[in-house]
Batch of 4 targets.
Target 1
Amino acid sequence: MSLQKDRRRSRTGYRKRRWRGQEPGFSFEPAFRISIPAPDGKPLNLDKEMFALLAEQFGLEAADFEREFIAGGERFRITDIDPRRPKYPISVERIPDRRGFKFTADNVAMLLKAQAKP
């Protein structure tokens, strides 16, 4: 932007207009979930089925889906495995605020084993 435009805008009180209620960095992303009924009538959880297929490749068990663990004094729940992220394939959510995080498979396996010991 040129110096003249800066001076003109500062004299006239020009400000960028923002949509009401939106702060910089605010975004909205709609998400839709479709439930497919299984033959017995129960809803089929595709996330759980995908986790069961991929869990052994990452050193976890199919039963670890939605299992909770503690890391750094905070509680987390396992929600997904994404094989396209080789360094941090395990998706988890922090339980109090449901914020998503990514963990390494080795770290999650170690934390689950440490928590299982009495």
Note: The mean pLDDT is 81.
Target 2
Amino acid sequence: MNKEEQIIEMLGKIMDEHSQTLEKHGTQLKEHGQILTALRADQEHVKAELDGMKISNAKEFGGLKEEVNTSVINQEILRNDTWANKVDIQRMNKGASSRLATYKLRLPGWEVVRCCPRKGRT
């Protein structure tokens, strides 16, 4: 029985070691579970923050796009007004030899009409 008792003691020690190992693994699994839970919560927080930044950037980009469109429209209006003024100046220069030259100077919100009599006449 001596050998059987030794084998039983050895098996008991092995079982104790395995129990301790299982307890350590159980503790580690609990710790890892807590870490994973914390990481998921942080990941969700970061994702929500990133989504908020995307929305904010989209709104800001939309505002900038509207400003650019407004600037382009204003530039086109200014170009058309400038062209109309140049045409009027050319007409005025060509029409100076007529009896009575009239021209209009167009500015946004202003209209000035000038009449110039022909030279030599009163």
Note: The radius of gyration is 45 Å.
Target 3
Amino acid sequence: MKASARAWSPVSLALSCVLACIALCLHADNILLFAFEKSAAAGPFACAFLGGAVVLCLAVAVSAHDDEQRRWSIGVGLASAGAGVGFALFLDALPALMSAVCSGALLGFGLTCLLRQWGRYYRSFTFQGALLSTGLSFLLGSCWWFVMMHAGSPFLFCLGLLVLVLSGGLPLLASDIVRADEIRAGLRDVDENWVPSVTIWQVMRQGWAAVAGLMFNFFVIGLTFWPLASGLGLGVVPKPLPYLLVALVAWQVATRVREVSGGMLETFYRVALPVAATIMLAAPALAAVFPAANSTVLSALSYVGIAVLNVLGLVVLFWSAKSSEVGFSKMFAAFCASCAASMALGMLTFQLLGSDASRGVALVLLVAYLAAVLVAEAWRLAKLRREAGLEAGANAPAAEPACDDDALAGGD
């Protein structure tokens, strides 16, 4: 039986708590990472977090099945992330390196596990619903991030992180309990066979640019990790405002489209990515031309592009759940491992090249990304015109043979 697709669900917005936790662990501009940096443990925390995420991805790729019991996996994610917060709470009582490594590894494993379960939950949405829910979840996640940035001490920060972990996992657990009750009552099939509307090839052929954009964002997170951990950042960027703009656009698009292919939805996807990359390039260019410009305004402008890449990249990941020939679990493992590798590469690039050269590398990669997106779009349009020309030629009426007067006259 094909599961009925729905537009969205208010429960799905609890994903914002998991996204906020991941951002707080990977962006070093918060009081907990500052405390770890004082003991030279911020780097080990981030590396352990990425290692925990990769361990979860390897476990998923080797042994997971899409029909597994969700409740057990959700419980493991909650327990692991909660234990990670516990180790962070004992930062002053334990050796700093031990606290950082244990906390990072457990948080990376647990939060990635919860993110995967949210991806499985999102498979019941239409593409429009996934776009709308993801945009709103990122908006709420940026609000939680903004509130957590003003925590007065590492202890309060960890308590807030624990609340976010519970808020991100318990709704999943509750939805699974409701699902089990519906199965027992005969309101839902035991085996929900998700009939794919697209293949994995179609997903990646159409969505590679969004995936590459999200990987670029993780690369930049790696580049800026140590400067932010040392307190050398530009201050608190008003992230909720860029995500509010993206969420409003996503709302307008999602409420006006009916089909995944063609129309406003596809136009939004194809226009948003090059525009986002252009905006991200415009911010450093404006900073160079106008040195006196407000750095906060330029950072907010650049973050509009980052928000677009984040939202569309995660939507493509969740939409890959509609593919059956690979399976969402393995697709998720490859996707998250690639993002973790991108951040690790960014951290390594900063250590090898330093701040100025790393910034140049990021700009070169962004220009290459924009060029690749534009070339791919030009190639697609040329292919469509060629196919349209061939189809028009095939449908053209054949020319009538010339009339032979002598033959009609009997050959006289």
Note: Residues 407-412 have pLDDT under 50 and may be disordered.
Target 4
Amino acid sequence: MLARVAGEVDMVAVPALRRCIDAKLRVARSLVLDLTATRYFGAAGISALLRTDELAAALDVPWALAGSRAVRRPLLVTGLADHLPLHDTVDDAVAAVGLLTPA
């Protein structure tokens, strides 16, 4: 399953994002988060990705993400890029989880 997130991921947007991701993880065989159209990615977004990683592991659902510079930069600076399934492109993320079509 592919989920696209655009715009700003901040403390206002994250509760809805988490509900969406949680619901998708509960029914998906795999999940790709496309954050390539995200313009702002705050600390609440980082928290949401960590929660996604924990829930995906608990549900045994492979997941991956691709992000814009606004997403990649804080993940690289904090070292989380080494611990989260971050990929350079959506196609790479899709391939990593074995998702056949990004639909």
Note: Helices lie at 14-27, 43-59, 69-78, 90-97.
